[in-house]
Amino acid sequence: MALVEQVRDVFSGLETAEAMEEHRATVLRFMENSSAVCAAEADRMTGILLFSKEPGELCFLAVDPACRRQHVAQKLVSFMLTQMEEGKDFQV
Question: The pTM is what?
Fold first, then answer.
């Protein structure tokens, strides 16, 4: 959630403490469903991606501003695609 706190100003709907708590619950649900992916470097998160296999949807993607332009998002999306049904369309 520290990474989400860093980038919350660019995501509408994450402005309040209540919204952040709801997002935290959402992240935990995605983790339980093995639909949350993170990228890490040493002791910090550099990116996070939430996806849903069934509707084929990329639900949330954020990259630490200090790690942008280092292909973090590309690697997260590439991994997500390996988890999706082959040939199935997905939406963002």
Answer: 0.86
